[in-house]
Amino acid sequence: MVCAHTYFFTAHSFLLKSFNTSVPLQLFHENRYFFVRAKQLGIDTFMVSSGLLLCYNLIGVLDKSNAKFNYVTYVAKRWLKLSIPLSSALLLYYLLPLVGSGPVWHECDQYFQPG
Q: Where are the bilayer-spanning segments (predicted)?
């Protein structure tokens, strides 16, 4: 899964202005990168396993406490747990393209190899 996302996001990256995007796209079509192309199977497996673990943990908590399931509280806790990393990732996505530009960026050109 990590490998598939690495190749996908590297090939479509606009983070560095001198990055050669044709190399990951050429590698993507070779047979040895089958598992990178078949990432949908990994996503389906992840969704099924996360749903099973969620139900297993929920049933365990309800059996121990003899409590009723409060859907609103569950959704609020889940939203809060997921919104912090998501907002951090969106902020990083917004700020990273700004790394390759700026008032003194031309002074760093001597340290980079051309794309």
A: 41-59, 79-96
Both tokens assigned to 74? 């569950």
Helices 39-65, 2-11: axis angle to 10 degrees equals 130
* Rounded Cα gap, residues 41 and 78, in angstroms: 25
pLDDT digits (tens, 9 = 90+) for 5-53: 666 666 555 555 555 656 666 666 777 777 667 777 778 888 999 999 9
- Sign, CA dihedral 64-68-70-71, equals positive
> What are the φ and ψ backbone dihedral angles of 114, each rounded to 5 degrees?
-65, 145
Across 23-49, b (16+ Cβ under 10 Å) vs e yields ebeeeeeeeeeeebeeeeebeeeeeee
The two three-digit tokens of residue 44, written as one number: 């389906």
